[in-house]
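User: My advisor, Dr. K., asked me to get a structural model of this assembly before our group meeting. I'm new to this, so sorry if the format is off. These are the inputs:
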Amino acid sequence: MGDSTQEVVLAADGRPLKQSLRRALMRQKMRAVMLVAPLLIFVIVTFIVPILSMLFRSVENDIVANTIPGTVIELSEWDGSTGEPPHEDVYRNLFIDLFKAEEAKQHTRLGSRLNYEQSGLSSLFRTTGRSLDGIGELWQDPLEDIDPAFEDGAFWYEMMSGSGGEGLLEQRRGLMAAMSGEEMTGDVGFVPSQQIVEMLPWTARAYTDFAIWAAIQDKDTVSEEDPWESVYGALGMDLTNPETISAINSYGGPGANALKAAAENIDQLPQEGFREAFVAEDDDWGSSDIWGTIKLYSPNMTPGYFLNSVDLQLTPEGIETKPANEQIYTKLFIRTLVMALIITASCIVLGYPVAWLLSNLPMRTSSLLMILVLLPFWTSLLVRTSAWKVLLQQQGVINEILVWLGFVNDADRLILMNNATGTVIAMTHILLPFMVLPLYSVMKTIPPSYQRAAKSLGATNWTAFWRVYFPQSVPGIGAGSILVFILAIGYYITPEIVGGTDGVFISNRIAYHISSSLNWGLAAALGSILLVVVLGLYWCYDKIVGIDNVKLGG
Amino acid sequence: MNEVIVHTKRPDLITFTMPVVAVLGAMFGFITGNIYGSPWIGFVAGAIIGAAVAGILSKVTTIKSKKKILASAVIFGAVGFVFGGLGGLFGGAIIGVSMGWFGNWIGSGKYRAGVPIYYTSGQVLWHNTFLFICAFVLFFLIAPLLPVVWLSFNAENFFTFTPEMLSFKAEGYSLKHYRDFLGTDEWMVPLKNSLIIAPIATLISVSLGTLAAIGLSQSHVPGRQAMMAVLISPMIVPLIISATGMFFFYAPLGNWLEVNLGLNQAFVGYVKVILAHAVLGIPFVIITVTATLVGFDKSLTRAAANMGANPVTTFFKVQMPLILPGVISGGLFAFITSFDEVVVVLFVGSARQQTLPWQMYTGLREQISPTILAAATILVSVSILLLLTVELLRRRSERLRGMSPS
Amino acid sequence: MQLIKTLTASTALLVVASGAAFADDHMASDMTLVSWGGAYQNSQVKAYAEPYVANNPGVSITWDESSAEAVAKLRAMNEANNVTWDLVDVVAADAMRLCDEGLAMEIDADEDLAAAPDGTSAEDDFGDLLVSDCFIPQIVYSTTFGYRNDMVPDGTPEPTDICALFDTETYPGMRSLEKRPINNMEWALLCDGVAKGDVYDVLETPEGQQQALDKLATIKDSVIWWSAGADTPQLLADGEVFMGSTYNGRLFSAIVEQDQPISMLWDAQVFDLDGWIIPAGLPEERLARVKDFVKFATDTQRLADQAKYISYGPARASSAPMVGKHAELGVDMAPHMPTDPENAKNTFLYNYEFWADYRDDIDAKFQAWLAQ
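Assistant: The format is fine. Below is the predicted structure of the whole assembly, which you can bring to the meeting.
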């Protein structure tokens, strides 16, 4: 400090002290960050990001728009409130979209997705998928009768291919990739001719889909393959347009003869449209309910899952509460919170005296007793839960003893499990060490002299405890409670085994939707709500007690 | 040992000891009478017997107290056997031990041993009630383990106490579940897997967690709360969500490791489960170690630095030994988290990484068999041995360092 | 710094060494089969896997006991493009869902499965049991009721009728039912006077669903709901319930193998199927290996052999006459099979299509009803 001038205080190395201190502080910060960084990156990469992407499923809903893109666009103009089924164009798009989805085995996925919203859609899509070929053949058979050239794959290739249709090719390739979830890159060996694209728009789309699929997915040469039935159906769609007929009559390119023959004989083609074809397969396609559901769930994002998870539902008329006999989630959320609170409270009641005893006994005795607290920890959760089952059931140990002693009638044994009581008992037991250990480590630091001082100043035992000792042990209670509460909220195996019907938690439903019903969107929505609740509690806890005060023993 | 130091005066026999023991006797009498349908006769008889026991115990001074309790157990057991057969023998013995011990404890005035001399009788009563409450809670903690141990010797394949077991006939018992556990790959391979996965996962979470906790406990850390929340999050997210979420991270990671680094499939499988379990263990390490560091005296590290130690030496020689208890208990939690974890491993692991809890889970679901209980019994025994060894070592080092037992 | 270096070096060594150690046990022709664990998986090991490996010494089979989570795990694997399973054992309803989700491969019965010894094509031999395009049936099982014969009140005949379930007056005691609507709703309607053929038509309507729930509500207080297959046998063995639904193979094991005082009720038992699916998108080489195994494991003899170890009926018509005696107990297995004509007098057929459609909807109502 000898070299300091009057204006600027310099450090030993001659730099201004302020700068030097700031650098030291920077270095300190850097070091702290460097120490935390490896773990932080590890946790963010292997945990936070995967969890967030999992939770994102709660709003994600691109399967509808990806699987039947044309239908969705066309459907957006349909007004469902009239009760009328949508326009013929919707059905035309549906035919072309579903056909390629059926080839890619995606239509049943869409059916499963929509079935969460309306029962019956799963089999509707499955059975319709099987009959799409039949619908296409309604047009294919007469077309082939009109001109046998239509039977030939090479003829179709010659007629459809040309140049200038790269735009359509790339557009269909993109849609196909979105639908199948695969890259779909590679040479198709086919470019639609611009003239055909303009003259026969439906056919060009259907044939391009077929060409992309045949070349990339099936690895075939397009010209050698017979086109899908959907292409014939699409040609049928084009032939209903008078402009197309006149364009065909002035057309001179490849396949002109066959097209002209078809245009002249359109009366041999089915006179009814695709709506009738679909309705003939299944009446439901004519129902505006089905279309309402599809329209409602066609956007890429949906609030539907979140609404479901609070017992609301999205309807064409807006957000409504679910029918009373389907409401369950709000009840389960409340039950989960209440039960977790009860479990936490019973852990405090049971854990507090033990922790007090442990922290006030001589080390030798307390560490032996500590073994008793730690032992259950070393027994698998599953085993402990099954043990509770053996103890609590109606023919179980506790009831047997009570009956043997004559306190309980054999006929009306106590029902201790398969209800909330069972869950509370078993979970309290399982989580009790998480309460005892933090309490113990906090109580260990409270000097016994305070309480003695209070007593010597005239406080009764109770006052000394309540006014002096207890406030000092509050951080321990807080730490234990937050641990127990958070862990309790997320448990599902124990409630599943001993909880019966009214002892199960929201986590059980989450697990059910993940592993059984495959409704991951709903599971993610329920999980997100639960997570927000827990984070809120964590935040409150941090504000009130401070997370640094959480101690787990040691 | 404490008996030597205690010099409490014996309480009055007629006005205190006999009535108090009579109350206990009355309780037992009530229960016993209840079995035969006449609780109140039992109640009165019990009270008389209790008072008598107290009287006899206090008159007989030549015999050691342990022998007195034993004698009481034998007498009560014999009477019980006459009336209630084998069950009566046990019941009687239990009542005998309790009565003998209680009569002795009250009669000799030892019940005041743990409290200051100036306590009023109300306070003494409360003190002892408190001890009973604690004993009850500790019993509650251990109770479920007792049927586990007992049923693991079941000769049948159910979690049921058979009549043979209850009447202690040899044919009701068998070691077959232990043979199943120790003798089949079905259980030994999962055990091996658990013993590979849990320690390595613990090592990772403890080493990274301790470093991070030290970083977090520095005085100037930018975004401390946020970082803390991130690091605690694996504990907060419901496990089933974590499990599915992590699957989507680990499956492509596994692919990448296999294809690009040419690592073996089984090895990659272990890596995935270990990393997943390490993440789950981290919050426990962070919480315990930061808590220990709150009380850490920073001048110690400055002193070490002052004397020329580099940060690494300071860490291992000064800081580490002091925060070791926190690190160890965090490690313990992390170990248990991995060793007892079933949800995540079901998703992230594959058949080759089947762990013990996984095997137990399928066992419970598909074929309830007491082999699970045998496994649990063995694990509990091993852990009792471990904990006792640690405790004995601690005492030995205390003795060696010349500390009096605290 | 020395310490850090040592640590890093030793960690690196450890990784390399363990990598090398694991390198050996990975065989080129390893197959991962997924099944349920327990006695059922054991029967598959004995009847299919062991003879197959004896014929093909180069192949090694790893069993993964994940069938209960198969649908979710397979979906996750498929999304992550990392399907590690080669063949998965699932119940027919799950097979259907996996097929719908595009997670299971469609099979061509005549091409992929062996014909019967008398030349009947696989398609005809399995017949109606090929309920989904992706499903290769193995066994027929029944969900039926077991009851404690020592808990039947004195002077009361033992129950012969499914509706004893709802008759808590005559047959007091708890019941155990699976914690899902499937089967329970059908039984409830059957016992509420709905004709067998109309059950699914009634159940399609909200009123019918409510009717079934109302019927179940009459015994709601005396039901313990189970979710794992091992639960009901345990509850029966404990005397915790008087009667409970479970798979007939479990009851066989409790009655014949464990000698418990339990009897079985063969009335309106629900016929269901369990079998294999091949995950979609397997690489050629693995697919060829699995197809070879499946062809072997589902031939007439193998399916008949499985019945030696567990009382589930073979899914092939041609296997039925070949069913023999229990491998250890020497009991004739045919009378214990759900396919035995004596047992199959009054069976109930599970409607897969119906449940594929109404599963989510009815389950939501069922769970809400349970929570009330």
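One thing worth pointing out at the meeting: Chain A has two domains: 69-302, 329-549.

User: Perfect, thanks a lot.
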